[in-house]
Amino acid sequence: MCASENPKQPRVTRLVGQSMPTLEAADKATGRVEYMGDISVPNMAHAKIVRSPFAHARITSIDASAARALPGVVCVFTRDELLADPNMETLYGFVYRDVPVVAFDKVRHEGDIVAVVVAETETGAEEAAELVDVDYEELPSVMSVDAALEDGAVHVHDEFFPIAPELRPRIGTNICHEAQITKGDIDQGFAEADFIYEDSYSAPPVQHCALDRHAVIADYEGDEITVWTNCQSPFPLQREIKRIFGKEARVIVPYVGGGFGSKSRERIEVVITAAAKLAKRPVRYIMTQEETFQTFIRPAYQSWIKTGVKKDGTIVARHHIFTVDVGAYAISGARSANNTLKVATGPYRIPNAVVDCYAVYTNKPPSAPYRGLPTTQHTMSYETQLDRIAKDLGIDRLELRRLNLVREGDIHLTGDWLRNAHTHECLDQVTEAIGWDKPLPPSDDGKIVRGRGVASTIKYTLTPPRQMSENSAEVALGEDGIFEARFGTVNIGQGSDTTMAQITGDSIGVGLDLLRIVHSDTGLTPVDSSTTASRSTYHMGNALVDASDKLKQQILAAAAPMLEQNADKLTISDEGISVDGDPGNGLSFDELVRRNGGPFAAMGECIVGGTWKAPDGNEYPIASTFWTFASCAAEVEVDTETGEVRLVSAAASATTGTAINPRSIETQLEGGVGQEMGPTLFEQMVWTDSGQLMNATLMDYPLPTMQTMPHYEPRFVEHPFDGGPFGAKGMGEIGAVIVPGAVLNAVNDATGVMFHEVPLLPFKVLEALDSHASSEA
Amino acid sequence: MNVNVNVNGKAEQRDVAPTVKLLEFIRDVLGLKGTKEYCHSGVCGACTVLMGGKAISACSTLAVQADGHELLTIEGLGTPDDLHPIQQAFVDNFGLQCGYCTPGMVLLTKSLLDENPQPTREEIIRYMGSNICRCTGYAGILASVEAAVAQQGS
């Protein structure tokens, strides 16, 4: 059980609460850290993937004979090898078995995997890949949700194989999941409303652009399959590899150079393992940057929101319908859509609400989460509509929010009793930080106009439908007198090793010098569900607290007879085990292990889900183990001659619970804001009508740079969260989630034009300003 | 073709094909993995190294173009136990998260400070704007460069 279920237990904090650079910072600053692309294993061959040039096509023939004949080619894995192997499953996937190990009948998006060429060298594999002759019969494609939902639209998948019980496909359509969540009586709510507002919003796909490209090394030989990968979910991947190949597997994840959701689930690990089986030797594959754009993307999003309000601004009803373009395979998109049903109405008291979600297959690349998506797009939708309502009713934008924001103990859309819901404090922090009441700099001859906007949000974390443990951790004391924390969290740059070291060190009572970290290796670390959804600090932190407490009990029980004392008279510190009131009497850790006859180790876990007993004595469902609330205040400049929007300043605040590493939290907020300003202002992926991506390289796809960086004002509201490790909860994504809403509201404040879509490309801004001016005239 | 280079103070001579990029030469021929690859089109700056003291993208440079030049890669600047002041500034000021862009950012900073020991904030932003970081939002990197500048002035 979670040790944290006993929050009364006093704890001395020496590491928790300290701002400290990551343990690996010096290794990273000197280029010593190994990422996937830096790893090689003996006798390794190199792979290149042959990808579909079409968005949707039937494969009529594959002739790899010329490629196989090229000197230096080890093997070519195609559908023929897949279908000839009776000991290999053909389909995989977490929520639907909809992903072929390698395409065998059809390709469903540009870049779909058709063959893997393995050669002695990378250039040899590239040359041979050019020689694989694939004939296609091109099929009509559906490149948008609207096209996919039309009557008579071509079906991306003919059959559905859902394996996640919460997912409900509509057979005979491209809808792979539809769901609804309701609260109160929506009809009565709208009947009571004095005013009703309806708006539509949209956001196009973007790519995560994690600099460390997807890569994998697979070794099929030996007693177990070994896979090195930069996937964010090593344990689910291990289970899937075992299922597909019917053989034990070990998945090792090194340091990862950013993920942001793009590496949440596997896409290349399975097919490269299949190629390694055929090659009978280890195979390495590293994607190009262009290929990452064909692998996982943030899905297109559309929403329609209808809101009923009273004259005083009180929201009484909300109907929110949204679609998520999951792309060709529902690896992540359907579940992301389903999860964000929980937060679609935002951090507001809305007594009557209905939210409908539709996750739809198209012929785009598979979608993946992207730092909180689609909570980000929900927030953009309901926050910009809220500003429209404020303007229309003549109510101050902040007052309208303060009137409707949830408070501690409110019952959420999901039926949850909201805890640690310091929404008003977040809003106050960001408006103060940005100087909301201070006058804006005057406009320079009317050319540059300035404005401010706010947005608030609520974010869930992944939570099982019933009570269970989704992750464990182990803490051990070895013969060298060093404590080792073993856990599955993937270090993707978020500082997890350091956070976990701070939690473990304070749980045991020792400093960082006595700690060693072992992370994300299914052969060495206990099971974890994934490093996603801002879940690691809470979940793995709790498991480490639990493991540390158990280890301490073991150590003290073993030391007591050696020191001829009761265990409750003993204290653990950097010096070892000492006897209270008897300095000089004690044991060093290595001596303890020696006299014990071997090392100590203890497992801990974190149980989540089920129900929670609230102060009113009733049990409430736990739709999210914790809820994170946040606000953003943005200040923008709009150039009315060029249409360019500049984010000048952004204040962000989140309810973090106890800040384990305060500066690290601030840098997560800065990073989230800085990343999301790209999709807000200028990033978008563009396809031709027939499904070819037009901007797959950085020369055509601009990213934020230091020159587009806003001034940041990161803040956090630090009330310990009952249940979190030392009172902490997760916040890795929330900085991004609040950006588009705040920026769109600021642009509206500056120009009087409310945009209903991102990115705010200059030509679109100019068009809107022109049509606004002519309608005013 | 024969390539003679001085890499991190050490003379290296290798025979390479004329099509080999400097990035592959550094990573695969010399085995110096601290120089990173992402876009392979000269945009992101993950592969930044100093050639003759100037920051260049190794992915967009041929190995033969480095013939007769001095190269500095991240391996030549400092070690975890003996950090160069710029690296220390990145560690102290949270100038890195995942660390993948960091070798390039550190070397770009070195190039900047060698050219212009006391840059203004605007000069730093213009210069450092050529490299991409996806984690930090650049705030920590700007603070790191400014700290390195301040230390140099002291």
Task: Please give a structural write-up.
The complex is a heterodimer of chains A (777) and B (154). With 777 residues, chain A is an alpha+beta fold. Helices cover 27% and strands 25% of the residues of chain A. Among the domains of chain A are: 3-33 and 468-608, Aldehyde Oxidoreductase, domain 4, CATH 3.30.365; 414-460 and 625-776, Aldehyde oxidase/xanthine dehydrogenase, molybdopterin binding domain (Aldehyde Oxidoreductase, domain 4). Residues 1-10 of chain A have low confidence and may be disordered. The model of chain B has no long low-confidence stretch (mean pLDDT 97). Chain B is built from 5 helices and 5 strands, in the order ββαβββαααα. Chain B has 2 domains: 2-76, Beta-grasp domain (Ubiquitin-like (UB roll), Roll); 85-153, DNA polymerase, domain 1 (Orthogonal Bundle). In chain B, 34% of the residues lie in helices and 15% in strands. Chain B is of the alpha+beta class. At the A-B interface, helix 1 and helix 17 of A face helix 2, helix 3, helix 4 and helix 5 of B.
CATH topology description of the domain at 414-460 and 625-776 in chain A: Aldehyde Oxidoreductase, domain 4
Poorly predicted regions of chain A are 1-10
Structural domain tally of chain B: 2
What distance lies between the first and last C-alpha atoms of chain B, to the nearest angstrom?
46 Å
Shape of chain B: globular
Distance between the termini of chain A: 67 Å
Q: Main β-sheet of chain B, in a few words?
A: 5 strands, mixed
Low-confidence stretches of chain B: none
Q: Helical amount among residues of chain A, as a percent range? A: 25-40%
Task: Give the arrangement of secondary structure elements.
The complex is a heterodimer of chains A (777) and B (154).
Chain A: H1 25-29, E1 45-51, E2 57-63, H2 65-69, E3 73-77, H3 79-84, E4 91-92, E5 99-100, E6 106-107, E7 113-119, H4 122-130, E8 133-138, H5 145-149, E9 175-183, H6 186-192, E10 195-203, E11 215-219, E12 225-229, H7 234-245, E13 249-252, H8 269-279, E14 283-286, H9 289-292, E15 301-309, E16 315-327, H10 333-339, E17 352-361, H11 375-393, H12 397-404, H13 423-434, E18 448-459, E19 468-477, E20 483-487, H14 496-508, E21 515-519, H15 536-563, E22 570-573, E23 576-579, E24 586-587, H16 589-596, E25 600-608, E26 611-613, E27 619-621, E28 628-639, E29 645-655, H17 662-681, E30 711-717, H18 734-737, H19 739-751, H20 762-776
Parallel strand pairs in A: 1-14, 12-13, 16-17, 20-21, 29-30
Antiparallel strand pairs in A: 1-7, 2-6, 2-8, 3-7, 4-5, 9-17, 10-15, 11-12, 11-14, 15-16, 18-28, 19-20, 19-25, 22-23, 23-24, 26-27, 28-29
Helix pairs in contact in A: 7-8, 11-19, 14-15, 17-19
Chain B: E1 2-7, E2 10-15, H1 22-29, E3 48-51, E4 54-57, E5 70-72, H2 85-92, H3 102-115, H4 121-128, H5 139-153
Parallel strand pairs in B: 1-5
Antiparallel strand pairs in B: 1-2, 3-4, 3-5
Helix pairs in contact in B: 2-5
